[in-house]
Amino acid sequence: MRRVISITMTILLHGVFLILLMIMGGILSDPQDKLLKQDCSRFTIEVEMSVFLYKFNKTFEDIRKQLSNNSNIHFATAVQTDVYGMVQCRNYLSSVDCVACLDLARTQIRRNCSTADGGHVIYEGCFLRYEAHNFFTQSLLVTFESTAGVCSTNQSKSEATAFTPVVNRLITDLVSVTPKIDGFFAATTRPVFNGDVTTTVYAVAQCIETISPKDCKSCLTTGYSNIQSCPPASGGSSVDAGCFLRYSDSAFFADSSIINITPYLPGGGNSSSKTTIIGGAVGGICLLLIILSVILWFQLMRKRKSALGGDLFGVTKLQGPVIYSFKDLKSATKSFSEDFKIGEGGFGDVYKGIIKNGDVVAVKKLSIATRKAKTDFESEVRLISNVNHRNIIRLLGCGSRGSELLLVFEYMENGSLDTFLYGKKSGSLSWKQRVDIILGIAKGLVYLHEQFHLHIIHRDIKSSNILLDDEYQPKIADFGLARLICDDQSHLTTRFAGTLGYTAPEYAIHGHLSEKVDTYSFGIVVLEIVSGRRCSNLTESAAANIEPHTDSLLKHTWNLYESDMHSDLIDETLDPKEYSTKNVKKIVEIALMCTQSPTSVRPAMSEVVVLLTNDISIVQKAPPEKPTLSL
């Protein structure tokens, strides 16, 4: 009797649960961990296995944190020196299911690709890939050497004559619209009418967020060819490096994830009769627009003649920056008042501005008249508009009038780092804040050197070019002197663009430019952060053990290093309880490693990040012989 009651209660509970599920229009929590494809690189790991595993784990811990901290994020990348990682979950997965799928994929790939320096694994719910080289560029993301289509072994409940054409049309529409949708993701349904019975086809298309719309469509087109022969099978999936396609006659995402793709279809999905009606109306509107365009053209031509270069050539083609009028920016800064001046940049001064909507911005005023300088400005605008990293200052827009060119940046209330080290706010940063600032600067430089789609060398890393946000997180500023060079190539330049005291000797003296110039400058800034002193012009009273007339913080640090007195460098305003001598010594040694000569022995900034975040002691010590010091 008890067994009958137990079974009855179980059935009732299941029934209630299913009814609630139907009311909610959702599906069960499910990471969708059916394995679709996996491959390992043909090349083996070249570094020591423990080192590789450390970098691998750090890479995917970073990605896991990104996916866990924001439920709206389903795509993430990270890098630890030679381990580049990427994960993408289907947008309909919850944050918990996304992380669960990632954890499974991470375990799977390490189990099956234990000695390979790269590999990928694809589940119905997520995709994971890692490589020993940078594969984030679009050309390497679009397709694997061998793509794959996976068809269900079950047949659809509907007849093939009704089911197959609906599926093919639905997938064709998804291939067409997905590249047009922000985030490159579309999930939708379509009914299949089969006599008195109606079934529903569920389908989804997704592309890696970093590829172009053109590459997205190319990848999805290949994916469609992989599963075109699947119907009348009840489901099918296409897996590739840059995209994912799936259909099924069973629900695998909640109704809340459905996107209306009709507006993205040719003709907006309207019927032919509506198209005919609209066509006539559009024709009349077009005629009116042509007339208005001619009038506007004449007005613009008049304005051009009356203004001296009032429009910056090429900037209107930018997708990101806002084009501000010179008049509005002048008003925002009270006619570039000295009271609003907050600093000096590469080509001019920086002012605080309050624009019409009440937002506070930083306006960099560049008074340059030469054609070459204006070309540099245009290049800078195009460059900064695509830079997006939490430790890089963000460009909001630009404006111009004649030879006066303006850049508009996000405003940092706390100002520049130098004021906290040896300016009016000196002594107010804790040791933890200083360590976080050092790590943030390093990560920003890694982005510029290795992760941005072009190779950027800043050339002028210094404390006054590091701004602090409300949470004292650093943001690298002033790209007026940044230049692009080809990957893995040094550059010889006759134009010096750095700041004496921070500049690497090979660049200041011989004009040899590489990303190691920024590494050197970073090392100097780290010493300033640790000591709270300028990199040059130290006084006899700065510390009791500094020899008279010492004028270089780097030279002083090397003297302490040779005497094994690293901790004597630390800012005396800091509470000794905040830091450990071991940690101070490690950071000082990293800074000295960054200032070594020749450049080949300096670490890459990605290696610096690993050293800063690694709990083990540094094996490689700075050389006992001092390198040539900065000028």
What does this structure look like?
With 631 residues, this protein is an alpha+beta fold. It folds into four domains: 35-136, Killer Toxin P4, Chain A; 148-271, 2-Layer Sandwich (Killer Toxin P4, Chain A); 315-410, Phosphorylase Kinase, domain 1 (2-Layer Sandwich), CATH 3.30.200; 418-613, Transferase(Phosphotransferase) domain 1 (Transferase(Phosphotransferase), domain 1, Orthogonal Bundle), CATH 1.10.510.10. It has helices spanning 2-24, 49-69, 95-112, 138-141, 160-177, 213-227, 272-306, 326-332, 371-384, 418-421, 431-451, 505-510, 516-531, 553-562, 581-594, 605-613, and strands at residues 35-40, 75-80, 83-89, 119-123, 126-131, 148-151, 185-194, 197-207, 235-239, 243-248, 322-323, 341-344, 348-354, 360-367, 395-401, 404-410, 456-457, 466-468, 474-476, 483-484, 491-492, 512-513. It has a six-stranded mixed beta sheet with strand order 11-15-16-14-13-12. Strands 1-4-5-3-2 form a five-stranded antiparallel beta sheet. Strand 2 (75-80) and strand 3 (83-89) form a beta hairpin. Helix 2 (49-69) packs antiparallel against helix 3, helix 5 packs antiparallel against helix 6 and helix 11 (431-451) packs antiparallel against helix 13. The radius of gyration is 30 Å and the shape is globular. The model is unreliable at 2-28, 269-277, 303-319, 480-495, 538-550 and 619-625 (pLDDT under 50).
